[in-house]
Amino acid sequence: MSERGRFGSKIGVVLASAGSAVGLGNIWRFPTEVGRNGGAAFILVYVCFVLFLALPVMVSEFVIGRASKANTVDAYRVLAPGKPWVTAGYMGVFAGFLVLSFYSVVAGWTLHYAVQSGMNNLTGGQDFAALFSAFVSHPFWPLAYVVLFLLLTHWVVARGVQEGIERYSKWMMPLLFIIIFVLVGCSLSMQGAREGLMFLLKPDFSKVTGRVVLSAIGQAFFSLSVGIGCMVTYASYFGRQMRLVPSALHVCVIDTLVAVLSGFIIFPAVFSVPGLSVDAGPGLVFITLPNVFNAAFGGSWLGYLFSLLFYLLLLLAALTSSISMHEICTAFIHEKYGLSRQRAAAVVTLICLLGGVACSLSFGAWREVKVFGMGFFDLFDYLTAKFIMPLGGIAITLFVGWVMERKMVAAELTNAGTCHRHAARVLLFLIRWVAPLGVAVIFLNGFLGK
Ligand code: PHE
What is the pLDDT of residues 246-286, one digit of tens each? Predict the structure, then answer.
């Protein structure tokens, strides 16, 4: 146990955890959901769910991870030996493989778009929708980018907790914030800024239907990386002095801020170009935005810069998240089977390569291959976001709220009674009652919504 990796600094902990949370979920998925579900009202509902459902799950994961100092499977073995709770840990590792497989497909597209932007190939006069669908169904290039992205992820994870994850998060996250602020500035100076801001800031509650509410909970879970033991794994590298409640709160605030700022980048830009729609779905950042870059800047160097920075931002965000999914599985294989970290990471990368290729092919050669009526990409997405994450969230909060020794939980939440005693009481209430019940609703949505 003494040889386990460990984060070296508090800021490293917050940046690495925020790095896991901030990802394609914020910059690609969040604006897509906001666009589809009517803007400001969706954001308000989303923020409530972050605070009352996802935050308690994250704090619970921190408690389990730090109390056990083990990977997400062994954590349950250490804290509740011989009990079936370990199933939640296995589910998490399985989900880690699934998420990383389909995530690396979208991350691969991002890498391609970053390269194309860099080579100034996303210039005007092209049909970007046709370009996108030709690319994702190409028999070679999307696969090559999946491989490249996974190798990049592997390279960081194999270097270890402090030398890899913490070190790279420490420079990638600040860079990401700088790029975001530059892009928000550019976007707000565009002519459609007012309209875009209105869409984001003026709630229209008539849009909040049951379906919208349920999408908001799912989005909160995915975006904060909770429910599959990712934060259990990271917290197992936390030092004793880390304060769990404020750290979780910081991660939630940073994640939500980045999501909303992504809206501030995308919607003013989209409203600046007549004829483009805010509810373009997943194509929003790969089809709509290249149109925006060209129409708004008329092929000038500013358009080039905006486009390049945007895809670099998306790439950085994807990478800091993918390393955390990879780490769930690597930590497990490393500790359970006694393989070196490098070998364990190589096993994970290989398995995810197979999964990633299968997901990518479901847009091309394997378009007709369906399992339960879905291609691999949709199946993996569905299984994790609608099935394993909610179930995991319920199990994790029930475990901390009702199964773990009360004194141990209180000691973790308050660092042995030295801080945040009131906050700990509020959180314990959320963990025992509000989160498991609320999350049960997502789970039902997973079944009934399909
Ligand atoms: N939170 C990440 C995002 O927003 C996705 C993620 C899910 C990361 C699960 C780790 C675990 O993109």
Answer: 999 999 999 999 999 999 999 988 888 777 777 776 778 89
Confidence (pLDDT) at 410: 96
C-beta 269 within 6 A of ligand 1:
no
CA distance 198 to 179: 23
Q: What is the mean pLDDT of the chain?
A: 91
The SS3 of residue 119 is coil
Give the Å distances, CA to CA, from 28 to 107, 110, 225, 404, 418. 10, 10, 15, 37, 40
Q: Is the pLDDT of residue 159 over 90?
A: yes
Alpha-carbon distance of 240 to 6, in angstroms, equals 11
User: Is residue 344 within 8 Å of 330, Cβ to Cβ?
Assistant: yes
Tell me the CA–centroid distance for residue 177 and ligand 1, in Å. 18
Four-point Cα dihedral 102, 104, 108, 114, nearest 10? 120
Candidate from 321, 322, 330 with most ligand 1 atoms within 8 A of CB, to mutate: 321
Fold that domain 10-448 belongs to in CATH = Amino acid/polyamine transporter I (1.20.1740)
* pLDDT band (50, 70, 90) for residue 1: very low
Average pLDDT over residues 431-444: 88
Task: Please state whether the predicted TM-score (pTM) of the whole model is above 0.90.
Answer: yes
- Mutate which of 324, 381, 386 for ligand 1? The one with the most ligand atoms within 8 Å of its CB, which is 324
Give the burial string for 151-182 (b: 16+ CB within 10 Å, else e).
ebbbebbbbbbbebbbbbbbebbeebbebbeb
Contacts for 163-171: CB closer than 8 Å, 24+ residues apart: 164/323, 165/16, 165/323, 165/324, 165/327, 166/7, 166/8, 166/9, 166/12, 166/13, 166/15, 166/16, 168/319, 168/320, 168/323, 169/12, 169/15, 169/16, 169/19, 169/320, 170/11, 170/12, 170/15
Spatial separation of the C-alpha atoms in residues 60 and 396, rounded to whole Å:
7
